[in-house]
Amino acid sequence: MTSPWPLLITLTYVAIAMVIGLRARGGRRMNSLEEWGVAGRSMGPVTLYLLIAAGSVSAYTFMGAPGWAYAKGVAVFYVAVYLAYLALVAWYFGPKVWQFGEQFGHVTQASAIADRYQSPALGALAALVMSIGSIAYAVLQTVGSAYILFVMSGGMIPVWLGVPLVLGCIAIYLFVSGQRAIGRTNAFQGVLMLIVAWAVGMWALHNATGGLRFGPLFERLLAEHGEFLTLPGAGGDMTFSFWTTSIIVSMFSFMPPVWTQWMSASSARTIRRSATWLPTYYVVILPMVVVGFIGIFSLPDLARADTVVLEYAMQHLPVVLVGLLGAGTLAASMSSSEPFIHSVALSWSRDVLQPLLGLSDALTGRLARWMIVPLMALVIAPLAIAEPGSLVMILLVGLGFATQVLPAFIGMFFWPRASRLGVMAGIVAGFLVTVAFTTLWPHPLGVHAGFWGLMLNLPVFVAVSLVTAPADSEVVERFFRIAAPRGLTRLGSGGKTVAADTAAHGG
Amino acid sequence: MQRLVVLPTSRTGWALTIAFVAVVVAGIWPVIDLVNRAVLFLGLPLLVVWSYVLIFACFAVMLIANRVIEWQEGEDD
C-alpha cells in the first residue's frame, strides 16, 4: 500500500485516544486503589455501557469473526449470542458485586473471593491463575494492534516496533488516569468501532452486490455454498454441542476486568441500566461478518482467514475507509487489552503482594500504578513480539480456568454453605480436567473442555464443602444480606424463606 | 445451612427468572436445532435472524425486569 492516508488516519486515532486518556484524570490524585482502580465508583450509565461494550468487542470482531464467517459461516453468531447473555449476567450479578465493593471496600474480584472465604491464599491463587488468561488475552490484542500498524504503514512499522509503540501509549494514559482513562477511551473507541463497522460493511456490500440489501449476498451464498448458512458450518466442526457448551462456558467466565468495570459504576441501578442496553451494541458484529461472507466469493484463496476484511478493504475500498478500518480495528484491540492489563496490575498488587508483604493501602495504590510498567515491558511485550504458537492454547486454558472459578461465585451469590476448601478442591479438579481436555484430548465428543471441567468441578465443590467448615457466620451474613435481601429458601421445605442473619447462624 | 439456597421469593421473581432462563435456553441446543435451516428470512439466514431475536429478547427481558424492580422499590419505600 503506497498511500500515506491509512497510516495517518490510524495514528490520528492513537493521538486522540492519548489526549482523551490523559485528560480523563481531571486533576484527581491517582495514588489510591479506589481512584486508580475503580475510578472512585463514579461512572454513569452511558460511559459504563460503552466501557463494557467496547471492552467485550475486541480485535476478534474486526478480524477473527469475519474470518470465522469466511471459513465456517453463520456458526460465528454464537459470539453475538453469548455476548448478549453476558449482559444478562451483568444485570443480575453486577449490582450485587457493586454493593460488595461499595460496602466492603473490594476493588478486585480476588479481594471479594478472599473476603468471602476469609482466605488471602485463595484470593492470591485466584488472582494469579486468572491472570494467565488475562495476560494471554492482552498479548493477543497487542499482537493484533501491532499487526494493524504493520499493515497500515505498508510494512514501515514492523511488529517489534508496533508492540512497544501501542503499549507505550496505553501505559502513559493508564498510569496517569487509571480506570477513568479506560472508561473515557473505551467510550470513544466504542463509538468509533460502531461507525467504522457499519461504514466498512455497507460499503463492501454495495461494492459486492450493487445495493445495500443483505438479501442478494445471502441468496447467492444459499445457491452456491448452502453449508455456510447452518451448523456445523463449512468446516463441519461447529456442532450443536460445541455451540451450546461454548455459550455456557463463556457466560460463566467471570473475567476479573468485568468485575472491576461493575465496581466502577456510580450505583447498582447504573449497572442495570447499562446492562439492559448492552445487547443493542452487538449489532456491530453483523456488518463485519458480512465482509467475511463477501470474501468467500471475492477472495476464495486466502491463506489466513482472519485477514479477510483487511485484504478486502485494501483491494476494494477507498483509502480513507481503509484508514478508518485500521483505526477501528486498533480501537477494538486497545479497548480490550487496556482493561486486562489494568486488572492484572491491580490484582497482583492488591491480592498477591499486599498480603504477602504486609503493605499499606497507600503503598499498594502507588505500586498498582507502577506495576503496569514491568507487566508490559517484561511480560506482555516480549510475548507479543515472540508470538508463541501456543498463545491461543494458553488463552483457551486461561478462559477454561476462568470458568472453573464458578464455585467461588456460587458460594458468594447462591449457597452460604460453600467452604474455602470446597472451592479450592473444585477449582483444582476442574482446572486439571480443562487443561487435559484442551491439550491432550481437545474437546472430547465436541464438548468444550471448560464444560467438562465444570462437570467434575461442581460435584467436588459441593461434596468437599459439605464435609468441611464454612466461613464465619458474620461473613456469611454480611454477604447474603446483599446476595439475598429477601431471604434464602430452604430446599425441601415448600419454599420456606429464612433471613440472611438466621441462615448464617445455622438456621 | 447446607440446604439453604438463594431462590426467587415471589411470583414476580419466579416469572422474571423463568423469562431469563427461557431466553438462554432459546439460544442453545435443542432449540437452536429448530432454526438450523438453510433458508433466508428478510434476506438473512434464519440462524442470524434468530441470533438477533435473542439479542433483542435479552434487551426486552431486562427492560421489563428494571420496571419491576423500580416498582418494587417504590412499594418498599
* Proportion of residues in helical segments of chain A: over 70%
Distance between the termini of chain A: 72 Å
Strand order of the largest sheet of chain B: 2-3
Number of strands of chain B: 3
The average pLDDT score of chain A comes to 90
Number of helices of chain A: 22
Instruction: Work out the count of structural domains of chain B.
Output: 1
Structural class of chain A: mainly alpha
Q: Name the largest protein-protein interface in this structure.
A: A-B, 65 and 44 residues
* Total E-strand runs of chain A: 2
Distance, first to last CA of chain B: 31 Å
Order of adjacent strands in the largest pleated sheet of chain A: 1-2
**How many whole angstroms does the radius of gyration of chain B measure?**
17 Å
CATH superfamily of chain A: Sodium/glucose cotransporter
SS-based structural class of chain B? Answer: mainly alpha
Protein name (chain B): Solute:sodium symporter small subunit
Transmembrane segments (chain B): 12-32, 38-65
Keywords (chain B): Membrane, Transmembrane, Transmembrane helix
Subcellular location (chain A): Cell membrane
Model description:
By secondary structure, chain A is an all-alpha fold. Chain A is built from 22 helices and two strands. Chain A has helices at residues 5-23, 33-38, 45-56, 59-71, 78-104, 109-116, 120-152, 159-209, 215-224, 240-251, 256-263, 268-281, 285-298, 308-316, 319-357, 361-386, 391-404, 406-413, 420-439, 449-467, 473-483, 500-504, and strands spanning 488-490, 497-498. Chain A has a two-stranded antiparallel sheet. The longest helix of chain A is centred in the middle third of the chain and has 51 residues, at 159-209. Chain B has one domain (22-76). A two-stranded antiparallel ribbon of chain B has the order 2-3. The chains are: A mainly alpha (507), B mainly alpha (77). Chains A and B meet through helix 5, helix 9, helix 10, helix 12 and helix 21 of A and strand 1, helix 1, strand 3 and helix 3 of B. Chain A: GO terms for molecular function: symporter activity. Chain A: Pfam families: SSF (PF00474). Chain A: Belongs to the sodium:solute symporter (SSF) (TC 2.A.21) family.
